[in-house]
Write a structure and sequence with these properties.
This protein has 208 residues and is of the alpha/beta class. It is built from five helices and 15 strands. The protein has helices at residues 45-49, 96-99, 172-181, 188-193, 195-200, and strands at 15-17, 27-29, 34-36, 50-51, 61-63, 68-69, 74-76, 116-118, 123-124, 129-131, 135-136, 141-142, 147-148, 156-159, 164-168. The strands form three sheets. It has a seven-stranded mixed beta sheet, with no helix packed on it. The chain has a four-stranded parallel beta sheet with strand order 2-5-8-11, with no helix packed on it. A four-stranded parallel beta sheet has the order 4-7-10-13. The longest helix is centred in the last third of the chain and has 10 residues, at 172-181. The two termini are 23 Å apart.
């Protein structure tokens, strides 16, 4: 088990551990979270999948541990949101030289929605879109081509445009127990030892 390597599988160049390839200081990724891309080089995740993420905004993408992100998933940040406070949606401040505006006012061209926070053990499906300001709770599943505009509770399954709750993965009591256990924070050796219980869905065995 080596979360620092780029490719977790022998002879598979379409799957990477994101922590090993992300360089942007405003993107934080936990151990063993992986991205698969058979269309583009998955090492280009920052360029192809994290969009409108301009340094001037200082907004962050935070991805927890053991997340699974499918091909084409996109994270769209603040600068994609043209301001609604103006009479026009045209981003005049972005072209300050053309219109005689102050360069420092460029961020008034859009509305700041905030960071994107992805919990641990989250599965984001093919071509899903996560919008700025969204928090996705631990253990959640985002369906294929869902557009997530609002925060998602832990262990919820959501899908559609805009994404809506389909169901929860487990009963409320089990979700509460899993959030207490936080198995993703265990040492990898402990996770490996407990894999039979994790894979079998035997949450009660993890308490021992």
């Amino acid at each position: 088990m080596d979360a620092a390597k780029i490719y977790p599988r022998t002879n598979d160049k379409s799957t990477v551990y994101l922590k090993a390839v992300v360089r942007d200081a405003n993107i934080a990724v936990g151990e063993f979270s992986m991205y698969n891309d058979w269309v583009n080089d998955p090492r280009d995740f920052e360029k192809n999948n994290v969009l409108y993420h301009y340094p001037i905004n200082h907004d962050r993408l935070v991805i927890g541990k053991y997340c699974s992100i499918a091909c084409g998933a996109k994270f769209i940040f603040t600068s994609a949101n043209h301001t609604l406070d103006s009479l026009s949606t045209y981003p005049f401040p972005l072209f300050w030289e053309e219109w005689g505006l102050a360069a420092q006012d460029v961020t008034s061209a859009w509305q700041n929605k905030g960071d994107i926070q992805i919990g641990n053990d989250v599965w984001i499906g093919y071509d899903a879109v996560i919008m700025s300001g969204v928090t996705i709770g631990d253990g959640a599943i985002i369906g294929t081509r869902a557009v997530v505009t609002k925060s998602v509770p832990p262990y919820a399954i959501v899908g559609g445009v805009p994404a809506k709750l389909i169901r929860y993965r487990f009963p409320e009591a089990v979700i509460a127990e899993l959030q207490k256990l936080q198995w993703w924070n265990w040492p990898p050796e402990e996770v490996q030892k407990r894999l039979p219980s994790i894979q079998a869905g035997d949450w009660a065995a993890l308490r021992g």
